[in-house]
Fold this protein.
Amino acid sequence: MHASEEYQQLIRDYRQQCLWFLSPGVVPESRDAQLHTLECIERYGSMAAFVQARRLKEWLLQNSSDAFVVS
């Protein structure tokens, strides 16, 4: 699975538990907003969510000018 697809799936999976403040159907597109959502999932999600969010966050930080593609 591509990192962008994995990010979008993670948002769908943890929207109610960790990202309740996002409007339904909204997936953050800016790099800063994506980092913030991943940090929320790390903080308030399950251990599996933490591991996945941390890995995606590290990818995003390594690709400093990139953001996940959201369609």
About this structure: The longest helix spans residues 3-18. The CA atoms of residues 18 and 40 lie 6 Å apart. The radius of gyration is 11 Å.
